[in-house]
Amino acid sequence: MRIFICGFGTVGQGFAEVLASRKKFLSERYGKDIIIIGAMDSRTFACDPAGLDPLSLVSRKKETGKVGGKEYSDPRDVLSECDYDVLVEVSPTDIKTGGAGLGNITCALERGKDVITVNKGPLALRYRELMDLAKKNGCLLRYEGSVGGAMPIINLCTEGLVGEKITSIRGIFNGTCNYILSKMDKGQPFDQALKEAQQLGYAETNPTNDIEGYDAACKVVILANSVFGRDVKFDDVRITGITSITDEAVAMAASRNMVIRLIGEVTESKLEVGPRLIPKGHPLSISGTLNTAQIITDLAGPVTVSGRGAGRTETASAILSDLIAIADRRLRTDGKSLHL
Fold it and tell me: Are 122 and 103 in contact (CB under 8 A)?
């Protein structure tokens, strides 16, 4: 199986490192190596049909700021020329247009290539179109890491709980907001908590997507479409961020033995993100940067999952799980060893 990594920032490099660390496991599982034949950052690319050393790619990026020695103007030209089996698309998210990621994913699916992505923008804007394109061309599009990073929710709902009737999913889908609200629980003002989150790397220099609820909204759209079979987009979400939450509101919640958390909620008819009062001790009252979701099912009852919603290795672990699922699926379908 030949992999092309599109986007070689924190997550792309993390996936390369994880793939190197799991080389023996994957080789023993499939009888052949899974190799990286190409990688691309925002300006340069490297491609070698014989395979590229993952750790060398990471070292080169750290030392030179470039993943490869060749420059490009349109990433789709590179993706059309290189021969690979799976595109791992981890370029920066653009929730307004889908950005370069949308074009990259579309290009790969049109060529009949399997795709793994953690890029929320394309999925929040064009989910149905992309899934239809994958089906039309006989390829797979998987995206476990797009919701909650290392928190296993999409594959849990669509595979592990496949026999259940899922009636709702409520969760904390943005670790930045949860960190800020946790600090406000302890008396810290919003602005100070935000500044601290930025200093620690939890929040971007421009934190709008997080604190206004846009990031969480993308994730509830993905859950609505993938788990509930809905056909909704980012603009369909009712969104309220956390910027209007006052110290007085936090204190009032505490006086009632409750906390305020930014909650995303999905049902067959609801699609919302906003601050909610949560009783202390409830699974969704957690503090810190973790993502947590409570899935309500008819047979198993409430199922709660939690995990790190971001991070180099954590998100890469979700990509690895999707890669293994694709490899297993191809083995069952083809009835033969992986193609190299």
Answer: no
Structure tokens at 137: 């061309």
Query: pTM of the prediction?
Result: 0.93
* The listed CATH number (3.40.50.2300, 3.20.20.70, 3.40.50.720, 3.40.50.300) that belongs to domain 2-150+313-334: 3.40.50.720
Q: Active-site residue numbers?
A: 219
Query: Options 3.30.70.20, 3.30.360.10, 3.30.40.10, 3.40.50.720; which CATH number does 154-308 get?
Result: 3.30.360.10
Q: Could you give the CA distance from residue 206 to residue 149 in angstroms, rounded to a whole number?
A: 21
Domain range list for the chain: 2-150+313-334, 154-308
CA dihedral 6, 122, 296, 305 (to 10 degrees): 20
pLDDT in tens, 176-220: 999 999 999 999 999 999 999 999 888 889 999 999 999 999 999
Q: Which residues contact 249 (CB under 8 A, 6 or more apart)?
A: 260
| The pair of three-digit structure tokens given for residue 21, joined into one six-digit string | 């660390």
CB atoms under 10 Å from CB of 112, counted, come to 12
DSSP E strands: which ranges in the chain? 2-6, 35-40, 44-52, 70-71, 86-89, 114-117, 141-142, 166-172, 238-239, 258-266, 271-279, 290-297, 302-308
Q: What angle do CA 175, 179, 182 make, to 5 degrees?
A: 135
